[in-house]
Amino acid sequence: MVQSSTRSKWFACSVILFFALFATAILGQDGLVANGDFETPPSNGFPSDAIADGSIEIPSWKLRGTVELVSSGQKQGGMILIVPGGTHAVRLGNDAEISQVFTVEKGSIYSVTFSAARTCAQLESLNVSVPPASQTIDLQTLYNVQGWDPYAWAFEAEEDQANLIFRNLGMEDDPSCGPIIDDIAIKKLFAPDKPKDNAVLNGDFEEGPWMFRNVSLGVLLPTNLDEEITSLPGWTVESNRAVRYIDSYHFSVPEGKRAMELLSGKEGIISQMVETTPNKPYTMTFSLGHAGDKCKQPMAIMAFAGDQAQNIHYTPDSNSTFQTCNLNFTAKAERTRIAFYSVYYNTRTDDMSSLCGPVVDDVRVWFSGARRIGFAGVGLVFWVFVLVLVLG
Ligand SMILES: *[C@@H]1O[C@H](CO)[C@@H](O)[C@H](O)[C@H]1NC(C)=O
Ligand SMILES: *[C@@H]1O[C@H](CO)[C@@H](O)[C@H](O)[C@H]1NC(C)=O
Ligand SMILES: *[C@@H]1O[C@H](CO)[C@@H](O)[C@H](O)[C@H]1NC(C)=O
Ligand SMILES: *[C@@H]1O[C@H](CO)[C@@H](O)[C@H](O)[C@H]1NC(C)=O
């Protein structure tokens, strides 16, 4: 009796341990979703170059409408179709969609990274959603001469399961003109700790969307006005154009592994509301650099902090890829807006069309009155000390 109950306890423990490990394996999985790169062969093999007329199957995905698996090298109307990664991707026809359900942690914020390419349509746009949240992502602007870009979008998990849907909103005369999608990954985001000596949250941009180590194009962050649900914790993308999140493996980054590259002039604005004390003096410092992507000079940014605005030109200093800038302001309220945009509309010197721009990193805002009080205190101690010496 005793033995068997011990054994059953052991069994129960092992089962709990097994499920605990299993659950963490599912929940802790940042990176590609199941068959997120569309490289898993369907049970009857990948379709040949001929457009499949029957119904197709894509492992791990639910399909609706005209969905097609495309392979690299495949041609359409004399043009080779773009496959962002590996040798296969998916194309969505008019109003077609793909979806997948996966396990998430209720209440957490997740960021979805995916690669998208335009084909022949003029006004391509995608609806990315995890109902009830959704966002329309405009694929009209070509940010990159390669014809595709990675994008990121964030959602808050309202249940333990998320149904991720990609839908082509296009209604083209030619139904084969829909967008191509590839390399879909998710990442659970962490709210970075509020630093003691810096009012800016995630000012070093180290926390952000999933980036593939082997993808060299950065990740575009489209407009996102929600300061709680964002792929870049703390920050909002206010403008109607995207900005580019870059990594140190493929770009020059002033500090750490990540930074922001501002694109499209005034049409690409990042901002944050920082906590301040009214009528107190503050200093904002940040790094301004180039991304090492052959961006055509000159480069400059407009930096805003409260009612102060400053136009700062990037002036490369010897061998450094960045310079440190500062801006002083007096807070007028308990929350002060800081913001940045690129003054020029820059493109790369090698292809003359890929968008690029100045890099911003390591943004700090602090109460600058504190330092003066600190010095005054030290000075007082010094004079008391001198007085003691003289009198002694
Ligand atoms: C990057 O690696 C992922 C995972 O190994 C793969 O699915 C994807 O196709 C690769 N992307 C590129 C652009 O090579
Ligand atoms: C995008 O899809 C979601 C649900 O998947 C839907 O609620 C929303 O209305 C769609 N948005 C547009 C612009 O079609
Ligand atoms: C700049 O780099 C070159 C070559 O790496 C080196 O010789 C030179 O001393 C550097 N200059 C400064 C100011 O660091
Ligand atoms: C801001 O104030 C600091 C110290 O008070 C000063 O060194 C710096 O030059 C000021 N910055 C600007 C842009 O005026």
UniProtKB/TrEMBL annotation:
The chain crosses the membrane at residues 373-391. Residues 31-187, 200-365 form the DUF642 domain. Residues 1-28 form the signal peptide. Keywords: Cell wall, Glycoprotein, Membrane, Secreted, Signal, Transmembrane, Transmembrane helix. It comes from the Eukaryota. It holds the Pfam family DUF642. It is found in: Secreted, Cell wall. This is DUF642 domain-containing protein. The lineage of its organism: Eukaryota, Viridiplantae, Streptophyta, Embryophyta, Tracheophyta.
